[in-house]
Amino acid sequence: MSMTDIFNITMMQGFAGLSLFSVLLLMGLGLAIIFGQMGVINMAHGEFMTIGAYTIYFASTLTERYAPSFLEEYFPFAILLAFVFAFIVGWIAEWALIRHLYKRPLDTLLATWGLSLAMQQTFRSVFGAREVSPALPEWLLGSWSPAEGLDIPINGLFVMMVTLLVTGFVLLALYRSSWGLKVRATVANRAMANAVGINTKRTDRLTFAIGCGIAGIAGAAFTTIGSTGPTSGSLYIVDAFLVVTFGGAASLLGTVASAFGIAQTQSIAEFFISGSMAKVLTLLLIVIILMIRPQGLFASKIRR
């Protein structure tokens, strides 16, 4: 095997890791908002991702049945629906459950774990236990070949573009909008935020719902690389928490960096060693780095 072949294989594995990076980043962004900014351990975050994936499947099924001529255009609209449905369910979950458990992180862990089990059973009852896949538009299939022997999957490029747009929008909203100002004020000092007229309860609910909506977009991205089942989201919840913890719990920049590092390390290592050993190698590197830097890659600077 020549050096050119090795280079092309490494590049293709790296681009293949873009899809995994996109899913991890979108999941991590939602968790960074919910866990990093609000201190809520949301074990049901993966199920909100599953809501987004099933939304794509449902939209695909309806389009195939009632508007087959729209099959090439439905996917971007379905991504928006995935955000909306996950946002609505997240809003209801915060109102019915989470708002009673703030400042009780262990209680939020147990309550959201129970919520995740209930949501998984709901998925089984509604969609069945078998895994399903949507009909993707033709323009999402195939690959782009910029050079001989180098094939880059188109779906990975599209999902990457969506992820960059969502990440940019979240950063812009958090630091350049009234919602972001309210969130940062509430995180810094809840009592003072209430004193200056910020409705912190409404801010909490909106923030939680937005984090769940972003997980819904992650589910939409996931449908381009895998089939969807009732437990699909739970397979990513540990990796999503690793992304947030490794990057720094309150750092969105750290979330981006850690998601990229974890996805690329795992994807490239899988070609040279087995998938399980690649996972072990990735986790081992994370543990070693966290032993050296327990606050994460990009720790928040706070005044003590």
N- to C-terminal distance? 56 Å
| Proportion of beta-strand residues | under 5%
Q: What is the average per-residue confidence, as pLDDT, rounded to a whole number? A: 84
Radius of gyration: 20 Å
Low-confidence runs: none
Relative helix content: over 70%
SS element count, helices: 11
Domain count: the total is 1
| Number of distinct beta strands | 2
Cα shape: globular
- Describe the main β-sheet briefly: 2 strands, antiparallel
Structural class: mainly alpha
The largest sheet has its strands arranged as: 1-2
- The secondary-structure element order is HHHHEEHHHHHHH
Overview of this protein structure:
The chain has 304 residues and is an all-alpha fold. The protein has one domain (15-142, 151-235). The chain is built from 11 helices and 2 strands; from the N terminus they run ααααββααααααα. The chain has helices at 3-38, 45-66, 74-96, 105-127, 154-176, 178-188, 190-195, 200-222, 234-247, 252-272, 275-292, and strands spanning 143-147, 150-153. Strands 1-2 form a two-stranded antiparallel sheet. Strand 1 (143-147) and strand 2 (150-153) form a beta hairpin. It is globular and about 65 Å long. The termini are far apart. The mean pLDDT is 84.
